[in-house]
Structure formats: C-alpha cells, structure tokens
Amino acid sequence: MLGGTFDPIHLGHLRGAEEVRENLDLARVYLIPAAVPPHKTREPITPFAHRYEMARLGVSSSPYLEASDLEGRRPGPSYSIETLKNCQAMFGPRAEIFFILGMDAFLEIYTWKAYLELFERAHFVVIGREGTELEEPAAFLRSLGVAGIIENERGFFTSHSGKSIRFLQTTRMDISASRIRRLCRERRSVRFLIPEPVREYIERTGLYRNHGYA
Fold it and tell me: From the centroid of its chain, how far is CA 57?
C-alpha cells in the first residue's frame, strides 16, 4: 500500500511504485489517496473524488498497480493505522502487507497516530528522497522506540515482530505535485510529467486553474 495526497498523481509516484513492486516481487501495489490528510489541514486540497479518479486513470495501463478509494469511504482524518487495519481485514491474517512511503514522510512518522503499531502490522519500505538522507537508520529506528531492531545481511532491518524495514532507492524524478498545480494555473504544459489520461482529465475538468483546487 502506497498512500499519499496524489494532488495530482504523477510519474514519480507511479515509477516508484513500479520499482518497489518489481524489486520485492509484490503481487500488487494499491495507491490509496488520503481523503482527509491529517498533516495537511492548512492547505487547500482538491476534493477526494477528483484525486481518486486521477489515481485510477494513472494506474490504468498497469496490471500490477491499482487505485483504492478505501479512505474515501471512511469518515474523519485518514490515519494510516486505520487504513492498515482495513487492509488486513480485507485480505486476511495471512496476507503480507508492505507499507510504502517516502523518506521525508518516514522522518516525521513519530508525529503519526499510533505509529509504533504500524511497525507491528506491516513491513516497511522507505523510498529515498532528494535531500532527505538517513545516515544511521538503525539508530533512528531505535530512537523511534521500534523494538528489537536487527540488521539483516541482505541490507534491511527486522523488528521483534518479524516485520522488515527496507530502505530502497528508486529512480529519482524531479517532479512535484505542487509544481504541476502551478503549471496548470499558469496555463503551461504538464505533458510528460503526468500520465496522459490524467492530463486530459485535468484539462477537461479545469482542475488547478483557481487557487490550486477545483
């Protein structure tokens, strides 16, 4: 599961999801737009229906990536721990779930609701981000209070719960959703930054032309 605001989804999101899936041989990666992002309460956010539809269009050419409206069907803030519980209920106790997030979000995970429980319920996959490096991951994990951290010979960590924590480097693309929104407001091209069906949707609906949201 890869969560995010996806406002809009772009090729950086999709390429990262594709490389993680291939690297770990995952059956599927679900991209889950946050309905009410707890950490972005002061910023204008495009309504969920638009962001989910763009995510759905963005993954439409992949047999391995799928958009989920899970958080849009749940009231209140979109806490990752609740989404993870929902996923476990859907797929059953034997499912191996991998929680994918960027390094920037990972460095602030101590501010998340019940963040330690996430490490008990899912494997972590942390994707490197430009300018947000982690020189001593084991020390950082221990500072979070993640119990029983052991560094594995294969280059990842395991907690006492048996869940792994992996740090992966994927193709870094200098693409940001904020830049795409700005280009749209300025009536400039966003081709080759986002999937073509997403670009067509934005043009058809007029998203981002006023204050960055519909």
Answer: 16
Whether 205 maps to a domain, the answer reads no
Q: pLDDT-based confidence at 214, cuts 50/70/90?
A: very low
Counting Cβ atoms within 10 Å, is residue 199 exposed (0-12), middle (13-18) or buried (19+)? buried
Q: Tell me the CATH number at 159.
A: 3.40.50.620
CB 50 within 8 A of CB 207: yes
Q: Is the pLDDT of residue 120 over 50?
A: yes
Cα(212)–Cα(154) distance, rounded to whole angstroms? 43
Is 158 domain-assigned?
A: yes
How many folded domains does the chain comprise?
1
C-alpha distances (whole Å) from 70 to each of 9, 118, 159 are 17, 17, 28
Short-list 40, 49, 103, 104, CA closest to 77: 40
